[in-house]
Write a structure and sequence with these properties.
The complex is a heterodimer of chains A (about 350) and B (about 300). Chain A is an alpha/beta fold and about 350 residues long. Chain A has twelve helices and 13 strands. Chain A has two domains: about 220 residues, P-loop containing nucleotide triphosphate hydrolases (Rossmann fold); about 110 residues, P-loop containing nucleotide triphosphate hydrolases (Rossmann fold). In chain A, about 30% of the residues lie in helices and about 20% in strands. In chain A, strand 5 and strand 6 form a beta hairpin. Chain A is globular, with a radius of gyration of 21 Å. Chain B folds into two domains: about 70 residues, no CATH class; about 160 residues, MetI-like fold (Orthogonal Bundle), CATH 1.10.3720. Classes of the chains: A alpha/beta (about 350), B mainly alpha (about 300). The interface between A and B is medium-sized, with 33 and 20 residues.
């Protein structure tokens, strides 16, 4: 499949009063056509910074690119001027944010907010943009669009606002949609609806999706491939099946172990990962997870491992995969029951 | 909406009633009277004058008579300017104050909002620091000192603007600037901090993610949301301009209402004190109502009354 987006060795740092925070350190991934890539990780792992770097929405300064490349359809985005980026944002690459309560302008009708990018990117007249806005509202499943289009965001419910956001993001049929925790602020039933909607629209408008989340349940439901981020690095990547059924990195084990399993043994306790993520103002020399890893060895503290290729699609950066390391079996808690496979 | 306006109007009448009552009592408590001066007036004449203006009646009669007149927007005759009613004085001098006030409010709003917005957009750069130094100076220098300084430089030294009086547009520039500076500085600081808040909000990120350029994001998305605190300040701003104008009108020798107000207090001109107070209060109440109506125009989330729905 064709690569839409190629991120190579991306480094994004922030200058703060205290020190330089190395939020993203050497992240590489590809995004193929019509594919959903989930980027998973806890708060502060660099997933949002990575995604906002693709749109070049990181305020610079204090942020800065410290090397690497982001290629969209073969074109380098890092070298593009602000003017050139304006033509890409909203047209080629769109974004949905986490909190639908705050990500719509409260003083502008939803219809106008949808129309804006249509008028900007597709040279539509106001009337045309309104007509397309009605279609989009219909498409994202907002009932009675004729009335809703002239309403303000506060007249929408949370789920409807996120649908409105999706309508804005998809207005110009973008090649890439970045969804930064699109369901985190919504309750579970609405979550499922929004994920269904995104999957449905992916087929209709042929969009590739980068789904940022910390919820593995969402990943299992919506993604084709997964990249697990920790401490500003991708530590393991693979297809959804590989990550769920053959995880190799202890951090991935920890993530899977901390996920509740409705159909599993109810006596099973949730496993938390002890400790806190590393301070990226002073990043560890070796593997960022070494300090919290129950299997950490001497080498982990001082040397970051290279990626071990486990298959064409799965890569993992862990010294345990080195042939000289002791053989370690993933813990029982990281084993995923059969229920999740059925959902795929 | 109609019901809301009627309610608001009712509460304005009640407020005015209390203002009239309290001013009346305070004025009676103050020593001295309108006819007290350094030269002793013969007691018979003073007696006659008191009789003429109804000052010999019992207090409650005076009070009720006054209330009756005020209800008909009649503030009675002036004690000092013989043959003139308070209404004449207000009608004659208010246009000067109104012109000066409007010019100052316009200056304060436009320059203040502009300074605040560019300071926020160029946050932590020399532009920001310069704007904020101007703002701090504007807040800390009292307007009568600024007025004197302006007169000295622009009228005396450079000779480009008239030093006082109020005959042409050129005459209005110095007093309007002197009056506008403090509120302008305050608005600039208010605008800067609320603009910084708004620029960090998620919907600004959404707007940028649509590919809109900085100018459109600022004017179409940020400004309308950020201007709310400034709108709230408009009510008190009207007061600041009006009370500030007492001093400025004296310095620039403008025959405005502010000057009349100050003079009436030293003259113990009871009816003029009462009349101007009531007039200013009514003006203030109306301007607060206008600000509240303006809110609903700017922010669709704010609705009239308790219905909460559409109105």
């Amino acid at each position: 499949m064709k690569k839409v987006l190629e991120v190579k060795d991306l480094n994004v740092f922030f200058d703060t009063y205290k020190a330089e925070v190395q939020a993203v350190r050497g992240v590489s991934f590809d995004l193929h056509e019509k594919e959903t890539l989930a980027i998973v990780g806890e708060s502060g792992s660099g997933k949002s910074v990575t995604s906002q770097s693709i749109m070049k929405l990181i305020p610079m300064p204090p942020g800065k690119f410290a090397g690497g490349s982001i290629k969209f359809n073969g074109e380098e985005l890092i070298d593009k001027s602000e003017r050139q980026m304006e033509d890409i944002r909203g047209k080629e690459i769109s974004m949905i944010f986490q909190d639908p309560m705050t990500s719509l302008n409260p003083t502008m009708t939803v219809g106008k907010q949808i129309a804006e990018s249509l008028i900007k990117h597709q040279n539509m007249s106001k009337a045309q943009a309104r007509k397309r806005g009605l279609e989009l509202l219909e498409l994202v499943g907002i009932p009675n669009p004729e009335a809703r289009i002239d309403q303000y965001p506060h007249e929408y419910s949370g789920g409807m606002r996120q649908r409105g956001m999706i309508a804005i993001a998809l207005a110009c049929n973008p090649k890439v949609l970045i969804a930064d925790e699109p369901t985190t602020a919504l309750d579970v039933t609405i979550q499922a609806q929004i994920l269904d909607l995104m999957r449905d629209l992916q087929d209709k408008v042929n969009t590739s999706i980068i789904l940022i989340t910390h919820d593995l349940g969402v990943v299992a439901n919506a993604a084709h491939r997964v990249a697990v981020m920790y401490g500003g690095k991708i530590i393991e990547t693979g297809t959804v099946d590989e990550i769920f059924y053959n995880p190799t990195h202890p951090y991935t084990w920890g993530l899977l172990g901390s996920m509740p399993d409705l159909e599993g043994d109810s006596d099973e306790e949730l496993q938390a990962i002890p400790g806190t993520p590393p301070d990226l103002a002073d990043p560890p020399k070796g593997c960022p997870f070494a300090a919290r890893c129950p299997y950490a060895m001497k080498v982990c503290e001082n040397h970051m491992p290279d990626y071990f290729e486990l298959s064409d699609t799965q890569k993992s950066a862990c010294w345990l995969l080195d042939e000289r390391s002791p053989k370690v079996e993933p813990p029982e808690s990281a084993k995923v029951g059969g229920s999740k496979r059925d959902e795929q | 909406m109609g019901r809301y306006l009627i309610q608001r109007f009712g509460s304005m009448v009640v407020s005015l009633f209390f203002i009239v009552t309290i001013t009346f009592i305070l004025m009676q408590l103050a020593p001295g009277g309108p006819f007290a001066s350094e030269k002793k007036i013969p007691p018979e004449i003073e007696q006659q004058m008191n009789e003429k203006y109804g000052l010999n009646d019992p207090l409650h009669i005076q009070y009720f008579n006054y209330l009756k007149d005020v209800a008909q927007w009649d503030f009675g005759p002036s004690f000092k300017y013989t043959g003139q009613s308070v209404n004449d004085i207000i009608n004659r001098s208010f246009e000067y104050s109104l012109l000066l006030g409007l010019e100052s409010i316009f200056l304060a709003l436009s320059i203040g909002v502009f300074l605040g917005v560019i300071a926020a957009l160029r946050h932590n750069t020399s532009v920001d620091y310069t704007a904020m130094v101007i703002a701090v100076l504007g807040i800390s220098v009292p307007n009568f000192i600024l007025a004197a300084a302006l007169q000295y430089f622009f009228a005396m030294k450079l000779g480009v603007l008239p030093v006082a009086r109020f005959d042409s547009f050129l005459h209005t520039i110095l007093p309007a600037v002197a009056l506008a500076t403090t509120p302008m500085a305050f608005i600039a600081r208010l605008m800067r901090s609320s603009m910084l808040d708004v620029l960090n909000s998620d919907y600004i990120k959404t707007a940028k993610a649509k590919g809109l350029n900085e100018r459109v994001v600022t004017y179409r998305h940020a400004l309308r949301n950020a201007i709310m605190p400034v709108v709230s300040y408009l009510g008190p701003l009207v007061v600041a301009i009006l009370t500030g104008s007492f001093v400025i009108e004296e310095i620039f020798d403008i025959p405005g209402l502010g000057a009349e107000f100050v003079n009436s207090v030293t003259n113990r001109d009871y009816t003029v004190i009462m009349g101007t107070t009531v007039f200013f209060s009514a003006l203030l109440l109306v301007s607060i109502l206008l600000v509240d109506l303006l809110y609903t125009l700017i922010d669709p989330r704010i609705k009239f009354g308790k219905e909460g729905g559409k109105s």
